[in-house]
């Protein structure tokens, strides 16, 4: 075993892609032929200790034993592993992987004493920055709003975000190489069109355009969402109106809190929003008066009534008229 490696590493946190990279580095240092991978789902603490002590076929080399989901272990399992760590095998590196584990737990204390704890966490408010870092790793260029849009579309699962980042970065590199140019910049439109969104309630492109009071962009975003939806337009139209009502409601709430002197961070905590969503809502609130936001909610209520049989006009036309009215600035 390379002398600079420690007997045990406890890898914890929400940043699973970074944990995976750390494990790949350990694998490369030790060598794939000397790696054993276990899971606490079906391997006890005693199994992990036995694997760590099994040096027969690897004498003189080194050994890496990886155990996933060690937070699942019971007290008896942890006791066995802690006892092993008091006098670990000099030829073995034990890599324990946990989603969440308290720093004062028996296993964490034993790992810290015998080796090192590596914590890779991404606070939710930092997710857009994390996404930007992943794009940079692939040599891709994505603006801040594109990173936020991806988080809204996909959600906060880092593995799923990493997959979407890699896909978008590959597309950007491929699109650029076809034209013999540098990587194609990734914006909100590319994210909306190419990512496989999991957070179905996201209407980032539409709400963002509305917040800028960009009528043309609002109409284009609404039509794009309708075209991409696998639901009938008769179902998707009222859903779209409802989602916009919810968004405007958040902007109204943030506007009211801003008038009380609260910051976006404080508002995010009170309204249980992602901090970047609150920041965006605060910025959009500055583009509307309180009366305009009130009128927008009333207008969208009338739209909902029209879409559910209260109008003889085509539903698409009713939607377009309402979107123009709630977006356009007063002449």
Notes on the structure:
The chain is elongated. The chain has 3 domains: 8-119, Rossmann fold, CATH 3.40.50; 123-196, Orthogonal Bundle (Helicase, Ruva Protein, domain 3), CATH 1.10.8; 203-331, Zinc Finger, Delta Prime, domain 3, CATH 1.20.272.10. The protein starts with 7 loop residues before the first strand and ends with a helix. It is α/β, with parallel strands linked by helices and 331 residues long. It is built from 15 helices and 5 strands. The mean pLDDT is 87.
Report strand %. 5-15%
What's the story with the biggest beta sheet? 5 strands, parallel
**SSE-based structural type:** alpha/beta
Name of the CATH first level of the largest domain: Mainly Alpha
Look at the structure and give the mean pLDDT.
87
Order of helices and strands: EHEHEHEHEHHHHHHHHHHH
Helix content: 55-70%
Tally of domains: 3
Give the C-alpha Rg.
26 Å
User: How far do the termini sit from each other?
Assistant: 74 Å
Strand segment tally: 5
Q: Do you know the CATH topology of the largest domain?
A: Zinc Finger, Delta Prime, domain 3
Q: Detail the poorly predicted runs.
A: none
The number of helices is: 15
- Annotated CATH architecture of the largest domain: Up-down Bundle
Overall body shape: elongated
Please state how the strands of the largest beta sheet are arranged side by side.
2-3-4-1-5
């Amino acid at each position: 075993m390379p002398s600079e490696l420690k007997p045990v590493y406890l890898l914890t946190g929400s940043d699973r892609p970074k944990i995976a990279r750390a494990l790949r580095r350990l694998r490369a240092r030790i060598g794939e032929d000397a790696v054993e991978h276990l899971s606490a789902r079906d391997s006890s603490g005693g199994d992990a200790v036995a694997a760590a002590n099994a040096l027969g076929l690897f004498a003189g080399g080194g050994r890496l034993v990886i155990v996933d989901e060690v937070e699942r272990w019971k007290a008896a399992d942890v006791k066995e592993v802690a006892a092993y760590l008091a006098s670990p095998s000099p030829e073995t590196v034990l890599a324990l992987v946990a989603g969440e584990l308290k720093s004062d737990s028996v296993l964490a204390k034993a790992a810290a004493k015998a080796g090192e704890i590596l914590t890779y966490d991404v606070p939710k408010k930092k997710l857009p920055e994390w996404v930007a870092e992943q794009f940079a790793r692939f040599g891709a260029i994505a603006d801040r709003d594109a990173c936020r849009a991806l988080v809204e579309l996909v959600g906060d699962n880092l593995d799923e975000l990493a997959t979407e980042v890699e896909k978008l970065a590959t597309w950007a590199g491929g699109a650029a190489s076809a034209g013999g140019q540098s990587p194609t910049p990734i914006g909100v439109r590319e994210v909306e069109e190419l990512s496989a969104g999991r957070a179905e309630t996201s209407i980032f492109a539409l709400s963002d355009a509305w917040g800028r009071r960009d009528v043309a962009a609002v109409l284009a975003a609404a039509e794009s969402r309708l075209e991409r939806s696998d639901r009938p337009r008769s179902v998707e139209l009222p859903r779209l109106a409802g989602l916009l009502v919810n968004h405007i409601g958040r902007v109204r709430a943030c506007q009211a809190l801003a008038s009380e002197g609260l910051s976006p961070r404080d508002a995010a905590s009170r309204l249980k929003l992602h901090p970047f969503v609150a920041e965006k809502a605060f910025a959009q609130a500055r583009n509307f008066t309180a009366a305009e936001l009130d009128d927008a909610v009333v207008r969208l209520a009338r739209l909902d009534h029209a879409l559910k049989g209260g109008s003889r006009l085509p539903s698409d036309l009713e939607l377009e008229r309402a979107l123009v009215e709630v977006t356009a600035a007063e002449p």
